[in-house]
Amino acid sequence: MSEENVEAVRELFERFAEIEFERIREAFEASSSLAEAAPRVGELGKWQLHRLDPEVEIDASAMPGIPEGNLAHGHQGWFEFWRAWLTVWESFGYEPRRWHDGGDHVVVEFVQRGRLRAGLEYATLMSNVWTFEDKKVVRLQMFVTWDEAMAAAAH
Predict the structure, then answer these.
(1) Model's pTM, two decimal places?
(2) If DSSP codes are grouped into helix, strand and coil, which group holds residue 87?
(3) Of the candidates 8, 46, 26, 36, which has an alpha carbon nearest to the alpha carbon of residue 87?
(4) Tell me: the pLDDT tens digits for 12-40?
């Protein structure tokens, strides 16, 4: 099952890359819930509705300066976290660099790159831990470094 989890996270990155960022941002800005935004972003939205546990958690407490807040819970929390994040960007993308198959935990290191609506170009390396139960994402943890993410996945 662990390889299936890695493939699920790879699919998310692929779905995000397939769609124009502006369409994603506009769908989240114009919606009030994940269920409302998902159909507006096609396969990416289908992935979110199919793969996210209804009680999914986002934990960004290890990330400095996240203006949206450090924690989010459930589909609505997921939606609100990403809506706040997406609205400040003019363009945005992810470039996966490496993967670790930790069974129920998938660690991915990636370059996050974009242009803020204010004009500032941005690129940084970061890592996430995706935790699965019964083929659903139950938790997403965000970290500045690969080592931090690997340590979190080991617990």
Answers:
(1) 0.92
(2) coil
(3) 26
(4) 999 999 999 999 999 999 999 999 999 99
